Amino acid sequence: MENLDVMVLRTLRDWRLAGRRALLATVVRTWGSSPRPIGSIMALCEDGAVVGSVSGGCIEDDLIYRFTQAYAGKDGEHRIPSGAPGFVKYGITADEAHRFGLPCGGTLELLLEYDPDGAGLAELVGQLEAGRLVQRTVRLADGAAQLAEALLPAELALSDDELVNTFGPEYRMLLIGAGQLTEYLATMALFSGFAVTVCDPREEYRGVWSVPGATVVSDMPDDVVIAFNPDRRSCVVALTHDPKLDDLALLEALKTEAFYVGAIGSRRNNEARHARMIEHFEQTTESLARLRGPIGIYIGSKTPSEIAVSVMAEILAVKNGVALPHDVDVAQAKNERDLPANDPGVLVCGVPRTAA
Asked: Where does the XdhC Rossmann domain lie (predicted)?
């Protein structure tokens, strides 16, 4: 599955270039709990078709009712209006919160842009498809939109005069190795909105690859990393267990801004990898600090599918800026698990294990 924002904007572009009326809804404010974060977008076509989401579905149904002919009477009184963008709030009262399925106390406000310019949307989508980070500024007086290249991701900004929303290219994942674990991880990454590239020079692995939607390449992994040019919306994961394939690729990845660089393997393999890189590739403990391993969070995973869940969870946590608790670190959890049960230095729930 492609990046949701790009999918929404691409679909809205197609509707508008085909001459169909449509609106773009953006979550601009929230109070209390909210089903979708600020900056989330959805598009609504005149026939009631919806792409994207601003809630769990009830608000989308209400927008369809308000602004299209899908639920209109014979006189067609429900239409998408024209003119300047407008605001609409949901969840102000307890009854509305219940009606629209909002969490207790949740309120959100949307900006609705009516019939956004198709040519402008085409330019925006084209820049996103080219891997650029784009700032879109909408003038509230008349809905006119301007595009500018952004240097850094930014939160949505709303003033009395304009809305500024920054759209980024897809998050990307480069996987080294095309084995069974990679198939599970690639599948999860695709439905999480990542563009996935799988690299494996071994024909016997590429020949049985079965996950549609991922790009599969056969060049040597370190060359692929260089060509992939990871940025801060990219992650690189080595899954072959083969130092000849993994090590040089990881070293190239560590030179980039990739938000996550990691390799599969046991605690012993991870220690050996660090020692090998320090001895043969002039690395230091500091230069390898960003290299994650053993990767994943500790959930007791043993099968390829469970390991993929563990790894994907860690990648998403890092992507979303979430600090994971110390006790879900794989190495830490396994080290504690392996200590003798009567070791007085082991803490359980904050007290010595022997006293727990």
From this structure: 173-315
